[in-house]
Automatic annotation (TrEMBL):
Family to which the UniProt record says this protein belongs: Belongs to the enoyl-CoA hydratase/isomerase family.
Highest taxon in the source lineage: Bacteria
GO molecular function annotation: isomerase activity; lyase activity
Biological source species: Ottowia beijingensis
PROSITE patterns per record: ENOYL_COA_HYDRATASE
Entry-linked SUPFAM superfamilies: ClpP/crotonase
Keyword entries, A-Z: Isomerase, Lyase
Protein name: Enoyl-CoA hydratase/isomerase family protein
Gene3D superfamilies: 2-enoyl-CoA Hydratase, Chain A, domain 1, Lyase 2-enoyl-coa Hydratase, Chain A, domain 2
GO biological process, one term: fatty acid beta-oxidation
UniProt xrefs under InterPro entries: ClpP/crotonase-like_dom_sf, Enoyl-CoA_hyd/isom_CS, Enoyl-CoA_hydra/iso, Enoyl-CoA_hydra_C
Pfam families: ECH_1
């Protein structure tokens, strides 16, 4: 099974419940799941009855990153690697960012790599007090893609993004709350109820105002720096960002993980 992104409704049909489900891999995102994420949020954006989205992981974890078992099939080819990040991954993340319906993320267990990226695209982030956050892909021999790194740095803060990526640090929920990434930390047994309560509170408020507020926030983010020094810079980085695809370091990191041994860089 390649995992699944499910769209359901809670109660009276005003709250969309989106669940990342890949239980045998702590809800790691497969290529199919990234495409489904885009499809689900495109559908939510096009509908008029949703007042809030509750985004969660199946079982006891939010999302443990990417499905590394798939990586040897495409990551060592520049064109395929670029398509994965620029089309599949960013397509999914962009659809979340473009959604005008408020999104509450309920984060339990592992929130790594792709999980941090998806959470960064949400509006309200609440987590269990034992949740863990990180992006230890340096152990796998590759960097975070430019657009994804830009998103995480903007929401989590550049200092935190540098620590996660350069040190492969794993931070607890209380620390991420102190750094401003999380809005609330709850006990694991109360997390889902608290997240649903927040979603229901949002659902009672004016939906048009919420959508307009999100459009305003999006416009402010886009206007925070001149295009020629911000977006154009990212676009320029992307041109050569995936040239490492066939490097020995990249292959060693992924092979070591799949072989369950320490990587030798």
């Amino acid at each position: 099974m390649a995992g699944h992104v499910a769209l359901d409704s809670d109660g009276d049909g005003r709250i969309a419940v989106v669940t990342l489900s890949h239980r045998t891999k702590f809800n790691a995102m497969s290529r199919a799941m990234w495409r489904e994420l885009k499809d689900v949020f495109t559908r939510i954006q096009a509908a008029t009855h949703w007042r809030c989205v509750l985004l969660r992981g199946a079982g006891a974890h939010f999302c443990a990153g990417g499905d590394i078992a798939e990586y040897p099939d495409f990551r060592f080819d520049v064109a395929q690697l670029r398509a994965f990040h620029e089309d599949a991954v960013w397509g999914g993340l962009q659809s979340v960012l473009d959604c005008d319906v408020p999104i509450v993320a309920a984060i339990e267990g592992n929130c790594m790599g792709a999980g941090v990226e998806i959470a960064s695209a949400c509006d309200i982030r609440v987590a269990a007090d034992d949740a863990k956050f990180g992006a230890p892909i340096a152990k796998l021999g590759f960097p975070m893609a430019p657009r994804e790194a830009q998103l995480v740095a903007r929401v989590a803060g550049e200092a935190t993004a540098r620590e996660l990526l350069l040190e492969a640090a794993v931070l607890g929920a209380p620390e991420m709350k102190a750094r401003g990434f999380l809005h609330r930390v709850e006990s694991p047994e109360h997390l889902q109820a608290h997240a649903l309560e927040r979603a229901r509170r949002i659902a009672t408020l004016a939906p048009q105002a919420a959508r307009l507020n999100k459009q305003t926030f999006r416009a402010l983010n886009q206007a925070s720096a001149p295009v020629d020094t911000a977006q154009a810079a990212i676009d320029n980085i992307v041109k050569s960002a995936y040239d490492y695809a066939d490097s020995a370091e990249h292959r060693e990191g992924i092979e070591a993980f799949l072989s369950k041994r320490p990587a030798r860089f």
